[in-house]
Amino acid sequence: MKIRLALLLLLFSSFSVPRPGAKVIYKMYHRYHGKWQRTLKFTQHTEKYRNDSLVSTETWYETIVYPNLFRIDFGNPADGNCLVFRYDSVYRFKMHELVSAKQNRSELVYLIGGMYFENEPAAAAKRIAAMGYDLGKTHKTVWNGRKAMVIGSLNDTAHENQLYVALDNYNVLRTVKYDNGRKQEVIFDKHIKAGGGWSETLVTFYTNGHLTQKEIYRDVIANDDIDTALFHPATLWQSHWYKTGE
């Protein structure tokens, strides 16, 4: 009987104790839940690279309503060329016309802010685990001079998905994901205060170690009033305001 009771207690404890990666997510959540900015908008200077060489530059206008509305206007918004991320889908418009729609839950928007709008931290941990980060593995490291906890691996050289979280302000600093033999890396840098949270102002993207895109934010505005009709694909192309810029 004592042996059986001990086994039951051990089994119960194994389910009740959060995995180490979940503990980090819980700390992030409790730091910013109810405090993170509701909205964010900024102008973005975008540089595209091929073979680590600059091939083009563009100006994008980006708007976020957390947790799951995100819009990118490519060039002048009045031209009607944009991507709209809404809940679990992304819609592409070209010259005001809807040209495609597909499933996309915008993982990066969730990681840099959307997670703080969950009702409980366990929901955030579950969503991040579903992205492919192993919450059972963590290790400490230093990234760009900042102490960080890495969720997803036991060391920096492991070929596993990794989420780097700063140990001072709990900013997301870096994501590393492996897909079909390709290493996709995103680095978030030069954070500034935004509302009750933060915003990166420099983002760089790498594929298999090669620079593919650099994003530089300016004119960052938090908690501005934003009309959510900007993210409604069913009416967006019909909007007189959208087509004329009025």
Please sum up the structure shown.
The protein contains six helices and 15 strands. It has 246 residues and is an alpha+beta fold. The protein has one domain: Lipoprotein localisation LolA/LolB/LppX (outer membrane lipoprotein receptor (LolB), chain A).
Strand content: 35-45%
Low-confidence runs (pLDDT<50, min 5 residues)?
5-15, 239-246
CATH superfamily: Lipoprotein localisation LolA/LolB/LppX
Which shape, going by the Cα principal axes? globular
Mean pLDDT: 90
The residue fraction in helices comes out at 10-25%
Main sheet specs: 13 strands, antiparallel
* Number of continuous helical runs: 6
What does this protein structure show overall?
This protein is α+β, with helices and mostly antiparallel strands. It has one domain: Lipoprotein localisation LolA/LolB/LppX (outer membrane lipoprotein receptor (LolB), chain A), CATH 2.50.20.10. Helices cover 21% and strands 43% of the residues. The protein has 6 helices and 15 strands. The strands form 2 sheets. A 13-stranded antiparallel β-sheet has the order 6-5-4-3-2-1-15-14-11-10-9-8-7, covered by helices on one side. Strands 12-13 form a two-stranded antiparallel ribbon. Helix 2 crosses helix 4. The longest helix is centred in the N-terminal third of the chain and has 15 residues. The protein starts with a helix and ends with a helix. The C terminus is likely disordered.
